[in-house]
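Ticket #4471: structure export looks truncated?
Reporter: QA, pipeline team
Priority: medium

Steps to reproduce: submit the single chain below to the structure queue and open the exported record.
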Amino acid sequence: MAAKREGSASPLETREERRNRGCTSPANQRGSHSAKISRHEPEWGQPAFHELGQQIFESFARSDQRRHGMDYLEGLLRAHGRRSIRNIAAMFDDSAAPQRLHHFISNSTWEWSPVRRALGRYVVERMRPTVWVVRPKVIPKWGENAIGADRQYAPQYGQVINAQQTVGIWAATESTSSPVNWRLQLSEAWLEQPTRRSQAAIPRDVTICDLTASVIDAASETGSHWGLPVMPVVMDARQVDVSLLVRGLRKAGLPFMVRVSKNLLLAETAQAPRRARADNVQAADQLMLGAWGRVRPVVWKSASAPRTELTATAEVAVCRAAEQLVLLGIGRPRERWPGELWLTDMTSVHVADLVRISRLPNRIDQDCSEGADRLGILDFGGRTYKGWHRHVTLVSAAHTVSVMRSCRER
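Actual output as written to the record:
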């Protein structure tokens, strides 16, 4: 193998580094192509940027794709304002940058699945997460041409809006989190109109599925098919079919802890044989009201300080299902009981640890607002299915770089 020539540019170098070393790319040879951002900007995570880029773009067979991937990732981290392709391309004194990056995201041949798998492996190795948190996310959109956008009810806004319905899988600890996998729901309006489907370049194997199916599919791929350590799946499941969700996660071999609605019908199993469970079906909140005599305070350690919650448990099953589960009620003194209801198959885990796990979705809410949202998860303006998936994959990588930088600073 020929030795690398001294002064030659690595495809994993940033544009700024190639400029500082006096290197030229093919685009540079056509004219000036230096980054507009000053080399004196504050540290933005370069060590993690290079380390992560080396790993997630390993599946790219072509050096130009790896170079474009690093450019796009750098742009997500360093651009100002909305992370549109135009704003990312504006970082570089290169008239071809908008077309080059648009092609890389919307029309190139690279697959996002290997990139996400490599990202998941990196996050698990570096962050040491303890759970997978599933976070459905509604992304408001203007106009009807944004891929996946439909009129739908958005719980966080309390009204019907034009929006995309997405599902994110986040690796989480008590102190940080990072997204590694995504799903975009598509309705009949997108999948059953041939012209619209063709214009959005939606693959033939993409079919209609509801929120529950999207959650199961994404969680199963991440937790079971990527060869990563098995971790519990945690989510607020009040908007999905809990019975189907439990069945799907158990089939994938994934332990779970999910928040459920007060009206979910469950069968108490502690003192009832299976044939008698039909007579013991009650709403979840009624079961917990009946457990008031077993309420106990539990102290658990948060990232900041010890906290105390009121808790009670009941052994239950989802109607006639054979599997025994635990219904956990959580509340606070002088407030309505129960404040929250959680369902889990982790029957041997201590209650204090279950309470701690139930608080991890709050970590994602904070990190998504401060990280992924700011870095462009809301900003894809393209009209293609592949373009959306590639963009959110690289936003997830940018979020991870930002997280690793913060960890080093701490």
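Status: closed, not a bug. The export was complete when the record was re-opened. Leaving a note from the reviewer for reference: Residues 256-345 form one domain.
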